[in-house]
Amino acid sequence: MADRLIVSMIAVGAATVLVVAFSFATRTEGQAQNDLSRGRLPQRPARVDGHPNLSGIWQVANEANWDLEAHGPLPAPLTQVGVHPLALLPAAPFLAMGAVASVPGSIGVVEGGTIPYQDWARAQAKDNREHWLDRDPEVKCFLTGIPRSMYLPYPFEILQGGNKVEMVFQYSTSGRTINLDKVDPLPDDTYDGFAVGHWEGDTLVTTVTGFQPGNWLDRAGNFTSDALKVTERFTPLGDLNAMLAIWYEATIEDSKVFTRPWKISMPLHRRVEPHAQLIEFRCQEFTEELIYGNLRRQQLVKHWEGKTIAVDITRKVSTKEEDLYEKHYLPPQWKQK
């Protein structure tokens, strides 16, 4: 069933891409470059089937993927106490990276400033933060779900046409479909959920349900359950003929984790370079040694030495049943005893 579902989703996506490409490929790259050199944005159809044309490549310019809430700068995502409890240092995995591993501060994107956790869930989010490197799905190149996929620090493309809106994400070479027509829900829960949409004036509104548990909202450990429901709003900003930004809002409801619905909002910025395109980023291959390296007969990555520090690596596999590593990747007969 899963194979048939994947094939059908690919078919729908491919059909939509062809429709959009045929409909909107009206300007040459040279014409776009000429417009930009004169200080004008390339013109394009303002509307598709009477609705704002959201097609294009978009990307956030904020720190939401680090932490949705307002936060100050940190020396690393994981820290340890230095000479004073308030003097934090990068934890060992990040020490050699120096400023490159630091976390930039942010004014936050949460309406009201604070995520309304239930007491147990706030404690769990704090524990997640302290074990970020082991638990964040992004570290292992798992799909990051909705709404997080919308504010990862990578570009994504919107393809709009007919009764579908397709979104293709550079991260993990993944995508999602927003159904503007009546379709049956997916047969199982997924990372990205099941999205249905409609137009309210010039705003595209989606309702997304059917999430599997375990999605994180950022690198700070904020998380959701399988009771998650996300309502998104995509509102064009400025001239529809040369749209520069979309105002994105997501209302998050999860009765298992939060005390009430809450909202995040931010602009999605259009990439206007003449050569703007998505570059394949199949990050799965970059996590193979992290996830499967202990299965090798001979350990490959053992030692790194720089000018001021040397790092030795010892492989370690947890025997806990709840670990994502064993839950998602190892058959029962392979689990460490």
Descriptive notes:
- This protein is an alpha+beta fold and 337 residues long.
- Helix content is 18%, strand content 23%.
- It contains 6 helices and 15 strands.
- The protein has helices spanning 2-24, 29-37, 119-130, 132-135, 288-292, 324-329; strands at 47-48, 51-52, 56-59, 79-81, 88-90, 156-161, 164-169, 174-179, 194-200, 203-209, 229-237, 245-253, 262-270, 303-305, 310-312.
- The longest helix has 23 residues, at 2-24.
- It is globular, with a radius of gyration of 22 Å.
- The model is unreliable at 1-12, 14-28 and 328-337 (pLDDT under 50).
How many structural domains are formed by the residues?
A: 2
Task: Give the amount of beta strand, in percent.
Answer: 15-25%
Q: Return the average pLDDT rounded to an integer.
A: 86
Give the N-to-C terminal Cα separation: 33 Å
Q: What's the helical proportion of residues? A: 10-25%
